[in-house]
Amino acid sequence: MKISKLLAAVFALMLILAACSSDDDAGDTATTEEAGGDGGGDDGGSTGGKLAAVQEAGKIVCGVNDGLPGFGVVDADGTYAGFDVDFCRAVAAGILGDSEAVEYKPLTADVRFTALQSGDIDVLIRNTTWTATRDGQEGAQFLYTTFYDGQGMMVPASTGFTTLEDLADANICVLSGTTTELNLTSVFGARGIPFTGVVFEDNAQLQPAYEAGQCQGWTSDASQLAAFKSSIEGAGGDEQFIMAEIISKEPLGPVVSDGDTEWAQAVEWSVMATVQAWEFGLDSGNIGSYSGDNPNILNFIGSDNFDPGLGLPSDFAVQVVTQVGNYKEIFDAHIPAIGLSLEGSPNNIWTEGGLMYVPPYR
Amino acid sequence: MTTETKEPQRGEVARPPFYRDVRVIRVVGQVLAVLVVIGILYWLVNNLITNMNRLGISTSFDFLFGPTNTAIPFCDNCWVIPYQFRFDPRSPVWHMVIVGIKNTFLAAFFGVILATIVGLLIGISRLSDNWLIARLATVYVEFFRNIPPLVIIIFFGAAVFTNGPFPIFSESWEIKVPGTTNNLLIISNDKWGIPGFTQLSDLVVFFIVIAIGLIGAIWIWRRRTKNFDRTGQPHHRVLWSMGVLLVALVAAYFISGQPFEMSWPAISENRRRIDGGFIANWGWISVTVALGLYTASHIGEIIRGSILAVPHGQSEAANAVALSAGQRYRYVVLPQAMRIALPPTINQYLNLVKNTSLGTAVGYAEITALTKTSVGNGRPAFQSFIIVMGVYLVFSLTISLILNVVNRRMQLVAR
Questions:
Q1: How confident is the model at residue A38 (pLDDT cuts 50, 70, 90)?
Q2: Looking at CA atoms only, how far is residue A17 from chain B in angstroms?
Q3: Nearest-by-CA chain A residue for B374
Q4: Quick check: helix, strand or coil at residue B364?
């Protein structure tokens, strides 16, 4: 399905309906502009062959967030950086051998799945929570969870609120089109706490409203709240408090379009290579010079041309880790800066009590 | 009488062969055009559905009957279809759609009223002989019509509410009705409370009496007009019909057993909620006022142009029969200007309705914003937006229809 066709269909429908009335000018609705504006080519549906198509195109189109500190932001000089962005780079390094062969598409929460379905993007790595409905109805396939998050609640420290019950009848700021909104409603509903959700489309509008006291609480993934807490306090704003209570599970990871197993495997193993490298104790500094004789590691770095048939180059893991880093390096580069640590979190490696556990590479 | 003659008989037209007959060509051409359009449409829709099926994406509208699962801002137990359903997160999705339509309507309706009033004032002011008034009106027009409405909405929301002069809700200003403890106005930076009505019992009888009153008002209007046409006595038809309506309103209130009462807004004990009254949230105020002011700049220009389009001779003629400036406008210039102004003004109203979809920028829960939320929560995007488009189409066509009827009547009068 191509989005341009979809829009064209809709536009044609509008025209026909409009033609039924004498004096209507439905022709100048926003739909027109959309139909005209997005005639750009895409690589078609996703019945298969995405891997070959990407290899031929020489780049991966990655849907990201461009306004979430720690996960995806645009620098002053226009380059993308962040935890999610690094996994885009890891996928490009694994599949194409070049971590810079990525075209970033910044997406808002409510268009991300449409972009994926239409083939506008090859992979979506944009703090997207894996849920049953999304898996079942969005034509999306969720891959290895790169970040285990949970929804929290932030309030100004001066209010002294410590539990959700303190927020009875309060306005609570939340982003539209996110699972956070669903969790908010169901948790508050289940506990019988009345509230008013104030819904914004992006954080650029939400944050000033929160700081002006239009909302008494701000709910989002705990990682995001930590990021905004540090940015508000860093800018000299009021001290913020994030409640200890986590009200939901939010596993975040890469998403691809349903129905192309080959492509999904290639993306997933590229991502998982970062964790495997961490488990092996390999990082961007030493993976190229590994001289041991652990057969698993030798397979992993492809030194004996080991090929499990994933459609990836045999040295893909080396490319991923040298160009981007292992999971811990990626985490350390972006996440501690927003106030979250690896120790004690579910994002630690399984050998140290975390949930980062990948199938063996053999 | 010979039949071989090629000369046409008198009164008889030579028929060209059918492929050159303009009547046949026209019909065939139109049929072909319709067939081509239907064919393209079928092809596109079929393509779409095939592709959606291939991707395993549902093409049905059943999701409308599943639970919404999210709360709607400022809509805790608000009405869905008047007084039949109340919205809560377990309500089906189509209730959410109705609430969205209601919110879109609220912004569009009051926006249109504001735009019309301000636009009329601006349009007339631009032609004022008073230098200051004319210049101020010009500045107003040039300012608003050269800025995209989205920017105006965001700026308005930020300047008036988010970073504006009003206090946070727990410290909101309460303006009392003098001598009582009732609040006339509650002002804060996220919601305002004004007096409203609470419904106490069924409104069917009430509306029936109002309807009767409306029929009566139309009847008296016609009667006064007829009387005026016959005798030339002043008709005062507006006064008369308004009087009838007012009487009907009062009568309806008592006949139906006082079905509603005044409700004063009050701040709840925990100072976070307004109880009673009518609650206006900042998103709605921002969208309505910003779009009203923006559209007013366009309507002002339409009014100005229309007044200028009335031939100068009309004003001179009015002067010649010694009409005052006010009378000249009221009886000669404006009635003719209105006829010219109406069609482009309809366009502005339609634009305003469509622009309410920008309300999501200030957190206003109109139909587009709610649909985006719903799509983000796993509801199918294509079907959801088909519904949204249908809603805007119905809104726009209704406005077009009503105003086209008005337009036709006004044009008939002028001949």
A1: very low
A2: 9
A3: A177
A4: coil
Q: Answer yes or no: do A205 and B56 touch at CB < 8 A.
A: no
Q: Do A257 and A352 share a domain, yes or no?
A: yes
Contact assignment for B71 to A16 by CB distance below 8 Å: no
The overall average pLDDT reported for chain B is: 86
Measure the CA–CA gap between B116 and B328, rounded to whole angstroms. 21
A262 and A319: one domain? yes
Contact: A26, B163; criterion CB under 8 Å = no
Flag whether A224 is in a domain.
yes
Indicate yes or no: CB of A197 within 8 angstroms of CB of B71.
yes
Chain A residues in contact with B71 (beta carbon < 8 A): 184-185, 188-189, 195-197
By C-alpha distance, which of A127, A128, A187 is closest to A152?
A187
Looking at the fold, whether A135 and A258 belong to one and the same domain comes out as yes
Average pLDDT, chain A: 84
Q: In terms of residue numbers, what domain contains A195?
A: 151-248
* Closest to B200 measured CA to CA, from B255, B258, B253, B252: B258
**A22 within domain boundaries:** yes
Clarify whether residues A206 and A67 are in a common domain: no
Q: Alpha-carbon distance B189 to B343, whole Å? A: 38
pLDDT at A46 exceeding the cut of 50: no
Question: A348 and A256: one domain?
Answer: yes
pLDDT digits (tens, 9 = 90+) for B6-36: 555 665 667 788 888 888 888 999 999 999 9
Q: Residue A43 domain-assigned?
A: no
How high is the pLDDT of residue A3? Answer: 52
Q: What is the pLDDT of residue B415?
A: 44
Residue numbers in B near A8 (CB within 8 A): 44
Partner-chain contact B272 A169, CB within 8 Å: yes
Among A258, A187, A13, A153, which residue's Cα sits nearest to residue B387? Answer: A13
Residue B350 to residue A25, Cβ atoms within 8 A: yes
Name which of A328, A326, A325 is nearest A348 in CA terms.
A328
Which residues are within 8 A (CB) of A166 and not within 5 positions of it... i.e. 6 or more apart?
A: A155, A159, A160
B408 touches chain A (CB under 8 A): no
Domain co-membership, A195 together with A269:
no
Same domain, A265 and A243: no
A126: distance to nearest CA of chain B, Å? Answer: 13
Residues with Cβ within 8 Å of residue B402, at least 6 apart in sequence: none
The residue type found at A246 is: I
Q: Which of residues 36-55 of B touch A (CB under 8 A)?
A: 37, 40-41, 44-45, 47-48, 51-52, 54-55
ipTM of the complex: 0.71
Domain count, chain A: 3
Residues in chain A closer than 8 A to B267 (CB atoms): none
Min mean pLDDT across A225-234, B96-105, B305-314 is at A225-234
Distance from the A228 Cα atom to the nearest Cα atom in chain B, whole angstroms:
18
A125 confidence band (pLDDT: 50, 70, 90): very high
Q: CB of B208 within 8 Å of any CB in chain A? A: no
Domain with A185 in it: what CATH number? Answer: 3.40.190.10
User: Does one domain contain both A264 and A142?
Assistant: yes
Nearest CA in chain A to B405: A23
Size of interface A-B (CB pairs under 8 A): 182
DSSP state of A345: S
Q: How far is A295 from chain B (nearest CA, A)?
A: 41
Last residue of a domain, one of A248, A281, A297: A248
- Please indicate, yes or no, if residue A258 is contained in any of the structural domains: yes
Domain boundary among the residues A248, A281, A307 is at: A248
pTM of this structure: 0.73
- Cβ burial B75-101 (10 Å sphere, 16+ → b, else e): bbeebbeeeeeebbbebbbbbbbbbbb
DSSP B384-411: HHHHHHHHHHHHHHHHHHHHHHHHHHHH
